[in-house]
Known about the structure:
Bound molecules: pyridoxal-5'-phosphate
Largest sheet: 7 strands, mixed
Number of strands: 14
Helix content: 25-40%
Amino acid sequence: MTDSPVDQNSATGAPTPRRKPKPKRTEIGGRPLKPSTLMMGHGYDPTLSEGSLKAPIFLTSTFAFPSAADGKRHFEGITGKRPGGAEGLVYSRFNGPNQEILEDRLAIWDGAEEALSFSSGMTAIAILMLAACKAGDVIVHSGPLYAASEGFVAKTMAKYGVTYVDFPAGASPEELDAVMVKAKAQAEAQGGEVPLIYLESPANPTNALVDVEAVKAARDKHFDPDRCPIAIDNTFLGPLWSRPLDHGADLVVYSLTKYVGGHSDLVAGSVSGRKRFIDAIRALRNTMGGIADPNTAWMLLRSLETVELRMQRAGENAEKVCAFLRDHPKVTGLGYLGHIDDPRQQDIYDRHCMGAGSTFSVFIKGGEAECFRFLDNLTIAKLAVSLGGTETLASHPASMTHLSVPDERKAALGITDSLVRISIGIEDPDDLIADFAQALEYV
Ligand code: PLP
């Protein structure tokens, strides 16, 4: 949270601190504090808010400047006239106390220099792409992506003269090398550059993993790392089970609607990572809007206090449920990161992931009709298209989230009519297994 209390009677115009905020403590005796500890107070000083233990929700559209000189200084930061960004609170399209505390805490999980909050995951992704690209440019991206992300690249960015080159999530270093060569040639032919490599790992809904280290090696060989960031959608495993910045990504994208929000009661997004790239995204967010609102930011602060507990419990539940489903005669396969068949995918998992998470696909014997019977007979799991909440959800991607994806692409990506996507919650695992067992009887 920006520390902005100042002496309003300053004769010089130079802002002087009125109440010194407590220093942010991120270590004790040289030992860094863990994110789960920092989520309880980092970035918030109760003495600045009447001692309120929890941050109040700041419902205001604008912030009063202590002096005209402060207003000028803040706008220099907002407009980029002075490097370093805003030093104080200005206007709620740019920043606000709840959002700044949230952004400080989000950055901690990924080991990022800075984070930005958005009104949805798709707002974060759209502003990231628009900030990176100009007409003639080429985005390199892994596939599959969340259907709306894929559509944004292929349809919306195309309207502004930006094309793409995509590659399958599990691509080898040799394949990645060829992809970069192709993208470079395509950009040169269009008079542009390759200003963004955009990944999603694990991919929605197949759970295919991208080798971020190999993408970084290929990027570093063909492009200037300071002009071609690697951004990755870490929604499925983050922030607990995967830290892509440690493997060479520059920016991490989240739909906070999922595990971070975790209660299926809000929609939000974020981008965190290297400051030089965050600055450009913030500048466009300042212009367009799209920052998370104060109430949602406050709810996310509540959620971050339990994200580790929730993700751990859901991960343990998923392991038990998948052990049951794997051997079931009505199940023909599982797309679960705890049971990987492919050696290359296992190698990526071992290098990049700290846990298998709790969203997976299950292939039901039969097609759409059998999947629908299974879904319609679940009693604990709800039939809904999100993931990462406290409750278990199940959906049929081919006819729901990925309905707009052309049939050939669905087939190539393994999004078949027999695939059901399940997001396991924090219910009792035996109750969940009993529910899946009885629903499979109807298949
Ligand atoms: N990324 C992934 C992997 C998703 O699953 C979703 C939504 O389902 C999004 C991004 C978009 O997020 P939002 O719905 O918060 O805009």
